[in-house]
Amino acid sequence: MAASSKTIMDLFKQPAAKRLKRVSSPAPPTSTPTPTKLAAFCSSSSSPIDGGKHDQNDVASSNPHPSLLEPSSTPPSILTAEEKSRIEFNKALARARRNLKLCSDKIAKCEDVGCVKLEELLVEETWLGKLPGEFQKPYAKNLFKFVESEIQRSGFPIYPPQHLIFNALNTTPFDRVKVVIIGQDPYHGPGQAMGLSFSVPEGVKVPSSLVNIYKELQNDLGCSIPSHGNLERWAVQGVLLLNAVLTVKQSQANSHANKGWEQFTDAVIRTISQEKKGVVFLLWGNYAQAKARLIDETKHHILKAAHPSGLSANRGFFGCRHFSRTNQILEKMGISPIIWQL
């Protein structure tokens, strides 16, 4: 993270002309995209913002206030769409890193006595404002007691690490949600889970489901296949990577299912459905597709396909073209598309 923060700050310390020259990601098209234009969103294998690499466990010692990321020497009125998009991404990234640091600091203060409360680890203000009183409901209190007990006394590691349990919500604020990808529960192997569905930290072997997602991206948009499985850049752009269950015991898939997490994440999905408009929901597999009952299809867009796992990807995931279709839907609504290339 230290390297990432240095890169961000160094970028904005440079003169505007030199800084803007480095921007290489394509500006969002203003018309309905053709396949060629959609492929442009996979034209760069890394970002000039962060050098293309960062570990979600790293925390910057200091993050700039988002307003400091606005170039002071170039009037906003003459910035190109590409430049404005870059600035907005940097602000969102700084906000996500701030939230991560807040959670890490809470854990560090209580590390010796294990006193941290799970409800204190959702720190993104927009979600707290949209889910008032949710943590005070009986199911949530029972859920948090169970998870806290598992963390302190189960004898098995609980994934993801505590500061990343609400990573999906802390990284993708409510007001930035454009797309929702629903998973089932976190990866249960050591070092895999990072609180974002389908995502693993850099340096961890890319799981088979994510390998298949990358293959479909390549076939759909011509994206090059990255060497890592960190999907944070999607989350920062507005892709909510939400697992239905947010914790799991090591080596025991679904071990925290039916404990209350589903009720909480259903509330998240229902809130998006009720209070936003035009969100694209990507429902892969029967488990995710069952969540369609929570979504108002008169206001939102639902794309369904088979799960990308090795057992089912050939049964309808490959060829679904969900990534290009998502961008077509967003652009038709006048919303900037997702740059899917990592």
UniProtKB/TrEMBL annotation:
<dbReference type="GO" id="GO:0097510">
    <property type="term" value="P:base-excision repair, AP site formation via deaminated base removal"/>
</dbReference>
<dbReference type="GO" id="GO:0004844">
    <property type="term" value="F:uracil DNA N-glycosylase activity"/>
</dbReference>
<feature type="domain" description="Uracil-DNA glycosylase-like">
    <location>
        <begin position="170"/>
        <end position="330"/>
    </location>
</feature>
<keyword id="KW-0539">Nucleus</keyword>
<protein>
    <recommendedName>
        <fullName>Uracil-DNA glycosylase</fullName>
        <ecNumber>3.2.2.27</ecNumber>
    </recommendedName>
</protein>
<keyword id="KW-0227">DNA damage</keyword>
<dbReference type="InterPro" id="IPR005122">
    <property type="entry name" value="Uracil-DNA_glycosylase-like"/>
</dbReference>
<feature type="compositionally biased region" description="Low complexity">
    <location>
        <begin position="64"/>
        <end position="77"/>
    </location>
</feature>
<keyword id="KW-0496">Mitochondrion</keyword>
<comment type="function">
    <text>Excises uracil residues from the DNA which can arise as a result of misincorporation of dUMP residues by DNA polymerase or due to deamination of cytosine.</text>
</comment>
<dbReference type="GO" id="GO:0005739">
    <property type="term" value="C:mitochondrion"/>
</dbReference>
<dbReference type="GO" id="GO:0005634">
    <property type="term" value="C:nucleus"/>
</dbReference>
<keyword id="KW-0234">DNA repair</keyword>
<feature type="active site" description="Proton acceptor">
    <location>
        <position position="185"/>
    </location>
</feature>
<dbReference type="InterPro" id="IPR036895">
    <property type="entry name" value="Uracil-DNA_glycosylase-like_sf"/>
</dbReference>
<feature type="region of interest" description="Disordered">
    <location>
        <begin position="1"/>
        <end position="77"/>
    </location>
</feature>
<dbReference type="InterPro" id="IPR018085">
    <property type="entry name" value="Ura-DNA_Glyclase_AS"/>
</dbReference>
<keyword id="KW-0378">Hydrolase</keyword>
<dbReference type="InterPro" id="IPR002043">
    <property type="entry name" value="UDG_fam1"/>
</dbReference>
<comment type="similarity">
    <text>Belongs to the uracil-DNA glycosylase (UDG) superfamily. UNG family.</text>
</comment>
<dbReference type="Pfam" id="PF03167">
    <property type="entry name" value="UDG"/>
</dbReference>
